[in-house]
Amino acid sequence: DVYHEMYRPQIHFSPKEKWVNDPNGMVYYKGVYHLFFQYYPDSTVWGPMHWGHATSTDLIHWKQQPIALYPDSLGYIFSGSAVVDKSNTSGLGQNGHAPLIAIFTSHDPIGEKAHRNNYQNQSIAYSNDDGKTWKKYNHNPVLKNPGITDFRDPKVMWYEPGKKWIMTLATKDRVTFYSSPDLLNWKKESEFGEHIGAHGGVWECPDLFALDDNGKTVWILIVNINPGAPNLGSGAQYFVGSFDGNKFTTSNNNTKWLDYGPDDYAGITWSNTGSRKIFLGWMSNWLYANVVPTVRWRNAMTIPRELKLRHVGKDILVVSEPVKELNIIQQHPITVSNIVVDKNLDLHQKTGAVKFPCRLNLSMDTVEDFSVVLSNDMGEQLMIGYNKSDTQFFIDRTKSGKRSFQKDFAARDVAPRFIKNNGMNLSLIIDVSSVELFADDGLTVMTEIFFPSKSYDKITLHAKEKLIIKKLSYANLQSIWK
Ligand code: FRU
């Protein structure tokens, strides 16, 4: 059974077979969440890119669909986005229907080999059957490269105050904003980022969108970067600011990261979801994505997350929480109060049998050093925890199982805590080969994958001295693959 092999995520999207990287073209339309993705159907390593396709009505259960976009004479189909062209500004709609428009990068491998500087250009495709099938536009590309080698990953949104489309494009060490009345003709508006944010690698997969801050509009700009992430390799930074239809400005001082773990990259948000903003990332890292020890397929997506704002001191931060739809697959939830962890505690003593995948929520009134350890009887373990003196969360996969496939994989990764409250809450979404940590209601997030030689089957809690868990909730999560 394809969906139940070793390491196959049970509550995360992964393709039936072969290679996947970035999520692309995420759009919600007529009750369906579309997820396209960078896909190479001929191998389990990266190659000539296609857009694979999957759909869901609840963000949790996915059905893989036929490939949406194949490479063509302009090149491979690199990352991009999709929008609903409600008033048919493009004129590509038929019989009064709104077309869906995909905007992506055409990557010409021949130009790349020849070391030309204009081999990435922006193209579009349209669908008049609600996303099932796609036709490339006849006059691609719609935005030509002015001579910037890295010129890709268009994310497009409708800017209502200016009645125009805005494209946010990754252009090497910055993003460039373009505008268009019709998705076909694009004009440069401005650039952002040359001297701000993290620059340990090239900027990729940006996303600009508005979030509500108690009735005020705040603009968020996500910029993925590879390498240069806080725990090595690829990661997602973000900026908080304002956008006036022409320019993005921020008062950010230090770099903020949507997810501090190593395994959340190229994430962007769904379009057409109203005021709700839903984010999804690729659950891997370019450091080792091509060599992780899976056989039939390689890589998966994170759990979809809802993004909101939260004020912390003078800062406005983005918080991420697993979408509430995750509750659909929750089974036999158990809540226990006032648990005393005296050095060690085997979770099953409080909750009955522990199964993977599962969700574990902890809240405490006074926080001490602690860890949650996933393990098997071969001595392999993954440690997730908090260190009070560093005010840091950590995930340690140095003894997590298979790890020799790449030298940086076996690391102890850390993430800052942003608030000084005595109390703390923590939510862990644990699949058979990944964990997503949401701490302090999603202020600190860490995503990590792991590959034990034999599945983990045990969860233990550890405290330096004594830890009191005010409330512990545990639930099994039902596989999304029938
Ligand atoms: C990010 C990325 C994008 C590019 C795509 C190619 O992971 O490098 O910049 O469009 O992957 O597959």
Automatic annotation (TrEMBL):
Pfam families named in the record: Glyco_hydro_32C (PF08244), Glyco_hydro_32N (PF00251)
Q: Where is the Glycosyl hydrolase family 32 C-terminal domain?
A: 341-471
Give any Gene Ontology cellular component: cytoplasm
Xref: InterPro entries: ConA-like_dom_sf (IPR013320), Glyco_hydro_32 (IPR001362), Glyco_hydro_32_AS (IPR018053), Glyco_hydro_32_C (IPR013189), Glyco_hydro_32_N (IPR013148), Glyco_hydro_beta-prop_sf (IPR023296)
SUPFAM superfamilies, alphabetically?
A: Arabinanase/levansucrase/invertase, Concanavalin A-like lectins/glucanases
UniProt KW keywords: Glycosidase, Hydrolase, Signal
What GO terms are given for molecular function? sucrose alpha-glucosidase activity
- By its UniProt entry, which PROSITE patterns does this protein fall under? GLYCOSYL_HYDROL_F32 (PS00609)
A single BP term in Gene Ontology:
sucrose catabolic process
Outline the extent of the Glycosyl hydrolase family 32 N-terminal domain.
12-315
Family, according to the entry, reads as follows: Belongs to the glycosyl hydrolase 32 family.
> What name does the UniProt record give this protein?
Glycoside hydrolase family 32 protein
Organism for this UniProt entry: Ginsengibacter hankyongi
